[in-house]
Specification:
Length: 409
């Protein structure tokens, strides 16, 4: 008996590798002990939230018995929280923002979903530089849209503007930029964004309807070596920013994020009304109120200790160097996206790593075969302890290739 839509059944089949990986991790940990399994597959931010969270929670205790303390709030969010967010986002984006430019959402995931709900017609296309966060395909597909991945240029995953231009059609409605990028850890430069803006201005005029840029920035806070993430709002009027506090405050389970609309966008109010209604009718109603209170208290008090992520980044780089695995140093976020060795079969190499109890995700899952993703959301010592496993996997991979080549002769 068929209970699901054809699309949902296909989604389950296509994403079954994520479930399998999850299950394999649990199985290996049971078999060998958690301390002997190097699970670099999941990006669950493990640093504690900033210490001021205790005061924020105490404040919640003080109001908890008041009527409506946890009642419904406006669909776009508590006005005072929106105003505070507008201030910090305005500084990040070098743009004057006010509360009315912002909708508070259920994480960056909620922000992207309400955006696509508001703008996509059946069959509309959304361009996305690859490698990309695997959920984008689902978020776009949820509203009848089609994701059009366009490969970036190796080794540092720069936008391929010629390929993006070729991918633009009258059905193109938006392009997603994710900087720092999951999985590559690379940052889109000001020059790349400027060129992209020029290209999109041209095609928006040509087709008589805007092509939006949605900049997905949940890792904006997490950059290394004084890198900055250039703001997109000052460069292109049909731009929006989505983000969250899942990583910057380690509040991933609190499900709190936002979307900001460029105040220079013609008819911006129309889009904001659409986003607000989408937040309601998709069933989010309003972003979780506890998260909104926490943000109000924490937003101007700093974030998680990013020096810890930086130490882990250096540890992971050392491990990869010691194992002679090729990679480009990530400039931000908490991922490495190294090259699969030899013939570049990412799935095969991930399977080889698994034999050493090392869990990684094949680049194919991010629309970019030939590479694999490692997260560094775990203790530095665990990362360092994985060195031997990586070396053995590289040796095994060399031996398979040698055998295969001999067999082919
Ligand atoms: C690139 C990217 N965008 C969006 C999200 C969604 O994050 P959240 O909804 O927790 O803010 C994630 C989560 O890992 C991500 O990596």
């Amino acid at each position: 008996m068929q209970l699901l839509t054809t699309q949902m059944s296909e989604h389950i089949t296509n994403s079954s590798w994520i479930r399998r990986m999850f299950e394999t991790g649990i199985e290996l940990k049971k078999q060998y002990g958690a301390e002997n399994v190097y699970d670099f597959s999941l990006g669950n931010p493990d640093l504690p939230p900033p210490s001021q969270i205790k005061e924020a929670i105490d404040q919640l205790k003080n109001i908890s018995e008041k009527p409506l303390a946890f009642g419904y709030v406006p669909n776009a969010g508590i006005p005072s929280v929106r105003a505070k967010l507008a201030k910090t986002l305005g500084i990040e984006q070098n743009t004057t923002l006010t509360a009315k430019d912002i909708v508070i959402t259920c994480g960056a995931a909620g922000a992207l979903n309400i955006f696509f709900r508001a703008i996509l017609e059946q069959g509309d296309e959304v361009i996305c530089p690859a490698p990309y966060f695997v959920e984008y395909g689902f978020y776009v597909g949820n509203y009848g849209g089609i994701l059009r991945p366009v490969k970036t240029i190796e080794p540092d995953f720069k936008l391929d503007l010629d390929a993006i231009e070729k991918a633009i059609t009258p059905k193109t409605r938006a392009i997603i930029i994710n900087s720092p990028n999951n999985p590559s850890g690379q940052i889109c430069s000001h020059t790349e964004l400027k060129k992209l803006a020029k290209l999109l201005e041209h095609y928006s005029d040509k087709f008589g309807k805007p092509i939006f840029v949605i900049s997905d920035e949940p890792y904006r806070f997490l950059t290394y070596d004084n890198e900055i993430v250039p703001p997109v709002l000052p460069l292109y009027k049909y731009s929006l920013v989505a983000g969250s506090f899942s990583k910057s405050l380690s509040l991933a389970g609190a499900r709190i994020g936002y979307i900001a609309v460029n105040p220079d966008m013609p008819s911006a109010e129309q889009l904001l009304n659409g986003l607000t209604l989408a937040n309601r009718i998709l069933g989010f109603v309003n972003a979780p109120i506890i998260g909104q209170y926490l943000i109000e208290h924490l937003i101007d008090k700093g974030g998680v200790d990013i020096s810890i992520y930086n130490e882990r980044r250096h540890a992971m780089a050392q491990v990869l160097k010691d194992a002679s695995i090729e990679f480009t140093m990530p400039k931000g976020a908490f991922y490495f996206f190294p090259k699969a060795p030899g013939n570049g079969d990412d799935k095969e190499f991930v399977a080889t790593l698994q034999k050493q109890n090392i869990l990684a995700v094949p680049g194919s899952g991010f629309g970019y075969p030939g590479y694999f993703r490692l997260t560094f959301c775990m203790d530095k010592q665990i990362i360092l302890n994985s060195t031997e496993g990586f070396k053995k996997a590289m040796n095994a991979s060399r031996s398979y290739r040698k055998l295969r080549n001999q067999a082919d002769k």
